[in-house]
Specification:
CATH topology of the largest domain: Rossmann fold
Number of domains: 4
Distance between the termini: 86 Å
CATH superfamily of the largest domain: Alpha/Beta hydrolase fold, catalytic domain
Strand order of the largest sheet: 2-1-3-4-7-8
Helix content: 25-40%
Shape: flat
Largest sheet: 6 strands, parallel
CATH class of the largest domain: Alpha Beta
Strand content: 5-15%
CATH architecture of the largest domain: 3-Layer(aba) Sandwich
Number of strands: 20
Length: about 675
């Protein structure tokens, strides 16, 4: 069998040199391609287009004698998108396509437009442009070797829109070799409908293999990569020594299948998830009129089902199981006077609001059930009791929730058929609002540290669905919501506080008269996690409900760099005068001021100052702050303008004004 190897950005065919022998030893004919414009650093690539690269792969396919059978395409990184376009052009000539750390790009999208271009080409950027996960196992020596061989990629290849025309590409089997991400993470992104991986939802046969390393396994684990490719050709998702992740079993509607012979917990959770997914399927892809339609004398609507089940999710698992207070929007309703408010008020909500309300309630329930399972299993009793004083177990609550969904999915069957004729088990061409669990809702393994969460990269955060309002900056993910008034901002902050308390995950919030700025970060791991993704979605939904639109242009982070010949000599001064903490970088313990870091200088500079800061302090704290700075090695430059400000300097002449409001009348 012939295997055509397609490199990613900045690489030529020689990048596969340590993989080819593994394939050849197994009797496979490998064809590593050097794509047009990638022949040398000096090649003229200004006119090379994405179509030129796709055509080069098509030519390689056509060069293989059809009598030798179909070929296998292997695309690394951006090369995955090029391989996908070649499959579109020759679906009958490709037996399987293998994506290594890359995804198939859909029609009309660019394959890699995030990297800066200059003079018609995209050079390999600085390593700081890549996430830590991308660079795993790529040590300094390997990075130097990579940069030495790197060739700028043609700008048009990264920016041109992908063009696809033949739906038979969905019939070609796919294997994804997950490198800097796990197969479980990828399948979660696919289930959520994340844009970069949306094509996977249409491909009929996808296998997943985990090869834990960075983004360039042809350099970091070439032999294992070769074995994984061979395993894909042989139809195996496990190619020792590569670890394979089990596939998620789903039906043709994308609904998760309960385990065939699982334990009690897995079976109950699996059946509940299948019922949730069925409701989502029946309610998905409809406009407001579709969600408000009724049948016969009944007033039940699909929108009402979504809102009612969102309420029931919160009622059983938040209020009853954990004994928590009602949260928005349930907390402002007079349920005694209007017991059917959830059904009745759904007609006032948009499809987006109803889908988000239900999704967020389901996400909360999964987290709360997992917490309860970790604390006491299915036998754990709810914190609230029936009127007769008996408290139900978690087992009973799960069974009641399954029954609730089973009743209402029957209603949804009838309503959806009346709306557009969708019936039975046929696969609908809709995008349902169901989002599978990010991880199985099972007890944490022994030894797991409470509060610890797996770190995700900025790229993974932005790939998540529902975080479009947010931007990852230094220090976390940030969003600004325009409110127009201080009172409206208080309402947004109140909603954020309720969400944060419910999820036991608290962001930094800044309230001003024209808006609210929020910064998310998981402090246990000093980075971003799925908890931040989940809370970001909920905060955005709450802000939308309060008519507070997001303004991504209004967020930024400021840091201060101080040039120093001997950082340790001046750091104590700045720690004292700012009232900061830290042994390396200095940070405000209250989270209000910018981080300060020290940049090493090799020689003195002729100018007098290398920085200048103004520090506004309470008037009754100025003298104590000045005394601390002087004791830490600083000196007084002038007190001519006191008490408005005193000018101090560190041992190398960097100045700061310690200022108050006094003396400025």
């Amino acid at each position: 069998m012939d295997i055509i190897l397609i490199p990613g950005l900045w690489l030529d065919g020689s990048s596969w040199e340590k993989v080819v022998p593994v394939l050849a030893q197994a009797g496979r004919r490998a064809h590593p391609l050097t794509l047009p414009g990638m022949e040398s650093p000096d090649a003229d690539r200004s006119g090379i287009t994405l179509r030129d690269h796709v055509d080069a792969v098509i030519a390689a396919i056509d060069a293989v004698d059809p009598a030798d059978g179909k070929v296998v395409l292997v695309g690394h990184s951006a090369g995955a998108a090029i391989a996908y376009a070649a499959v579109d052009a020759r679906p009958d000539r490709v037996a399987r396509v293998v994506y290594v750390g890359g995804f198939p790009t859909g029609d009309g999208a660019a394959i890699a437009d995030e990297y800066p271009a200059a003079h018609g080409e995209v050079p390999l950027p600085d390593w700081s442009a890549f996430a830590d996960e991308d660079l795993a196992d790529l040590d300094d020596k390997a990075r130097a070797a990579f940069r030495a061989r790197a060739i700028p990629s043609p700008e048009h290849v990264t920016r041109d829109p992908q063009r696809l025309t033949d739906d038979r590409r969905y019939d070609v089997p796919v294997t994804v070799i997950a490198t800097e991400f796990t197969s479980a993470m990828l399948q979660d992104w696919i289930a959520q409908g994340a844009r970069p991986v949306r094509e996977f939802t249409k491909i009929r046969d996808v296998d997943y293999v985990d090869l834990p390393t960075g983004h360039w396994p042809q350099f970091t684990r070439p032999k294992d990569l070769g074995q994984a490719i061979l395993g894909a050709i042989q139809g195996s998702t496990v190619a020792p020594p590569v670890d394979a992740s089990p596939r998620i079993s789903v039906d043709k509607q994308g609904r998760p299948e309960p385990p065939v012979a699982g334990d009690e917990t897995a079976t109950l959770l699996g059946i509940l998830e299948r019922n949730r997914a069925t409701l989502a399927w029946k309610c998905g892809g409809l406009d407001a009129a579709g969600l408000r339609a009724t049948v016969g004398a009944s007033s039940i609507t699909l929108g009402g089902l979504l809102k009612h089940l969102a309420y029931v999710e919160d009622y059983w698992f938040s209020q009853f199981l954990h004994g928590r207070d009602r949260q928005p929007p349930w907390d402002t309703v007079d349920w005694d006077a209007d017991p059917d408010w959830d059904w009745r008020s759904a007609v006032e909500d948009s499809p987006e609001q109803l889908y988000a309300l239900w999704q967020e309630a389901v996400a909360r329930s999964r987290s709360l059930v997992a917490e309860a399972l970790a604390g006491g299993g299915l036998d754990q009793l709810a914190r609230r009791a029936w009127p007769d004083g008996r408290a139900p177990s978690l087992r009973r609550l799960l069974i009641d929730m399954i029954e609730e969904y089973a009743r209402h999915t029957g209603h949804a069957d009838l309503l959806r058929e009346a709306v557009d004729g969708l019936v039975g088990e046929g696969s609908p061409d809709v995008h349902p609002p169901y989002q599978p669990p990010v991880a199985p809702a099972l007890p944490a393994p022994d030894g797991a540290r409470p509060g610890m969460t797996e770190r995700i990269s900025p790229r993974q955060f932005h790939a998540a669905v529902g975080v479009e309002d947010w931007r990852v900056l230094f220090g976390g993910a940030c969003a600004h919501f325009r409110t127009g008034s201080f009172a409206a901002g208080v309402a947004v902050v109140d909603a954020i506080g309720r969400l944060a308390d419910a999820g036991r995950h608290h962001p930094a919030v800044d309230l001003r008269d024209d808006g609210v700025t929020v910064r998310l970060r998981t402090h246990d791991i000093d980075g971003l996690s799925e908890r931040d993704v989940e809370l970001a979605r909920r905060i955005s939904a709450a802000a939308r409900a309060l008519d507070a639109p997001a303004d991504p242009t209004a967020v930024q982070t400021v840091q201060v760099a101080i040039d120093a010949l001997v950082g340790p000599a001046v750091r104590p001064f700045w720690r004292a005068v700012l009232g900061y903490q830290g042994d390396d970088d200095l940070v405000d313990p209250h989270g209000r001021g910018p981080k300060v870091w020290f940049q090493q200088m090799d020689a003195p500079r002729p100018q007098r100052n290398r920085i200048h800061l103004d520090i506004s302090v309470p008037h009754d704290q100025a003298e104590a702050r000045i005394a601390a700075a002087l004791a830490a090695g600083g000196h007084l430059v002038t007190d001519q303008y006191a008490p408005a400000w005193w000018t101090l300097a560190d041992a190398e002449g960097n100045e700061v004004d310690v200022a108050t409001w006094m003396g400025r009348d």
